[in-house]
């Protein structure tokens, strides 16, 4: 899967795999252009920080 920035659509991003406590695989995407950070799940849906923290608390 190719990732791009949710804010500026830049393709210069760093991705880091991340597994939540419930076993869900997420990818942390950092944009080099505008420095936005987003989490994307295996289906390509973008998660907010609040959603991520809520899932991590379960
Ligand atoms: Zn960006």
Write a structural description.
The protein has one helix at residues 49-57, and strands at residues 13-19, 25-31, 37-41, 46-47. It is 16% helix and 36% strand. It is built from one helix and four strands. It has one domain. It has a four-stranded antiparallel beta sheet. Bound molecules: zinc ion (ZN). Zinc ion (ZN) binds at residues 5, 7-8, 10, 31, 33-34, 36.
Output the keywords.
58 residues; alpha+beta; four-stranded antiparallel sheet; 4 strands; 16% helix; binds zinc ion
Write the layout of secondary structure elements.
Layout (H helix, E strand, L loop, with lengths): L12 E7 L5 E7 L5 E5 L4 E2 L1 H9 L1
Antiparallel strand pairs: 1-2, 2-3, 3-4
The structure holds zinc ion.
Number of domains: 1
Helix segment tally? 1
Portion in helices: 10-25%
Arithmetic mean pLDDT: 90
Element pattern in H and E: EEEEH
Widest β-sheet, arrangement of strands: 1-2-3-4
Total beta strands: 4
Secondary structure class reads alpha+beta
Compounds present? Answer: zinc ion
Q: What is the distance, rounded to the nearest whole angstrom, between the alpha carbons of the first and last residues? A: 28 Å
Q: Care to give the gist of this entry?
A:
This protein has 58 residues and is an alpha+beta fold. The protein has one helix at residues 49-57; strands spanning 13-19, 25-31, 37-41, 46-47.
